[in-house]
UniProtKB/TrEMBL annotation:
Biased composition (Polar residues): 1-23
Protein known as: Acetylornithine aminotransferase
Compartment(s) where it occurs, according to its Swiss-Prot or TrEMBL record: Cytoplasm
Co-factor binding details: Binds 1 pyridoxal phosphate per subunit.
One GO process term, biological-process aspect: L-arginine biosynthetic process
Residue segments, region Disordered: 1-25
Species for this entry: Paenibacillus etheri
Gene that encodes the chain: argD
Length: 428
């Protein structure tokens, strides 16, 4: 089935997924265990092709993709302009060591620093690695530049910062820590929006406060602006660095190039990954100029960070986003999408809240909503959850009104049906 030609895939496009029970990976179908570690709970779909907002599975079924690889393919699947730059670079130079100058890094760093409050950029390969770099930079700034014994990072409950040992310790969710003890020292987590708890957590060893502007994995929860202002004030008062994790919220997703720009604040450090390179693996840690000397030669490194290939894709992605004013588009389309959802679900008491920023949108339900995601797949729409009760919609930033109309029709119908069933069960 995976040998289908393009024409065959196209001719089958739109066919509904009817019977996939018991399929999955070929190995599983043959009764053997997959050679891949089972660390992901995977949906029973194998995606093999994508274009714009659409993806196809190995059976030729076509889906409207409102996941974008979890906020990664923000220019849509296989964006042509970026693809052309990638192909050019493939014929030119893939990789050289960071022992040499890499002109693509300066290009990307200039684009990002000209469009943000940051002055310096470090190149790595993922969100977790970017957050590790942020934590390391904060510690080293205090210890080497300021000469003080500060190392502790304060984070918030329901946050998500990654899966390395340090970043899962920073993450405010118990489930990512189970079975991985002992955790590294130097982290404290306090409830979000609890100012007294935050103040109480700050001590002589505190180096930084780290947070997301919208807790995406934690249920699409926006940080209250007043609380954010209080965090900024506490950082100033105690000499702490403010680290904003923009791995999911960055690169136009929320309606500004970086989500912190909605609030008029300037973090000392912020991190990027998901949407930065259209699906090519890359992460970035950005910081203010006064942090520059904390990462002196030899202090931190990454073999694959900012290769010629990665920086070509990043530069093309960023340039395309700026040229086509995609953050603004995300803002407009986000308003359109949430407006339609609110209209269609106004009478549905199963829906507790519809919220979001730009095209990072959450629908909070009264009870676990994972089954709605599975039902959506059968109707040809892909979306995900954010915690058990919240449905999360993350279309690419070029998504059209027609595609949004289609998706909202499917989602609202599914929720209405599911709500009726849930009510039926309660009353019977
Ligand atoms: C996805 C994510 C990460 C981790 O990124 P990886 O590339 O998977 O390591 C960190 N922080 C936030 C907010 C994320 O959404």
């Amino acid at each position: 089935m995976s040998k289908l030609t393009q024409a065959e895939l196209d001719s089958q496009a739109g066919a509904q997924q009817t019977d996939t029970a018991g399929s999955g990976t070929p190995d599983v179908a043959a009764g053997k265990l997959s050679a891949v570690f089972p660390s992901y709970a995977r949906y029973d779909i194998s995606l093999v092709k994508g274009k714009g907002t659409w993806v196809w599975d190995d059976k030729g079924n076509k889906y409207l993709d409102f996941t974008s690889g979890l906020a990664v393919t923000s220019l849509g699947h296989a964006p042509e302009k970026v693809g052309a730059k990638l192909k050019d670079q493939i014929d030119t130079l893939w990789h050289v060591s960071n022992l040499f100058h890499i002109p693509g890094q300066d290009r990307v760093a200039n684009l990002l620093t000209e469009n943000s409050c940051a002055d310096q950029v470090f190149f790595c390969n993922s969100g977790a690695e970017a957050n590790e770099a942020a934590i390391k930079l904060a510690r080293r700034y205090h210890q080497k530049i300021k000469g003080v014994d500060r190392y502790e990072v304060i984070t918030f409950e329901q946050s998500f910062h990654g899966r390395t040992l340090a970043t899962l310790t920073a993450t405010g969710q118990q489930k990512v820590k189970e079975g991985f003890l002992p955790l590294p020292a130097g982290f404290k987590t306090v409830p979000l929006h609890d100012l007294p708890a935050l103040e109480a957590a700050i001590g002589g060893h505190t180096a930084a406060i780290m947070l997301e502007m919208v807790l995406a994995e934690g249920g699409v929860l926006e940080v209250e602006p007043e609380f954010l202002n209080a965090v900024v004030a506490l950082c100033k008062k105690h000499g702490l660095l403010l680290i904003v994790d923009e791995v999911q919220t960055g690169m136009g997703r929320t309606g500004k190039l970086f989500a912190h720009q909605h609030y008029g604040i300037e973090p000392d450090i912020f991190t990027l990954a998901k949407g930065i390179a259209s699906g090519f693996p890359a992460g970035l840690m950005l910081g203010k100029g006064y942090l520059r000397d904390a990462f002196s030669p030899g202090s931190h490194a990454s073999t694959f960070g900012g290769t010629p290939l990665a920086t070509a894709v990043m530069a093309a992605t960023i340039e395309t986003m700026l040229e086509d004013e995609l953050p603004q588009r995300a803002e407009e389309m986000g308003k359109y999408l949430t407006g339609l959802l609110k209209e269609k679900l106004a009478d549905c008491s199963f829906v507790k809240d519809i919220r979001g920023k730009g095209l990072l949108i959450g629908i909070e339900c009264q009870s676990p909503a994972g089954d709605i995601v599975l039902a959506g797949q059968k109707k040809g729409l892909l979306f995900v959850t954010a915690g058990p009760n919240v449905l999360r919609l993350l279309p690419n930033l070029y998504v059209s009104k027609e595609e949004i109309d289609q998706a909202v029709d499917i989602v609202s119908e599914l929720i209405h049906t599911y709500a009726k069933q849930a009510n039926g069960e309660v009353s019977s």
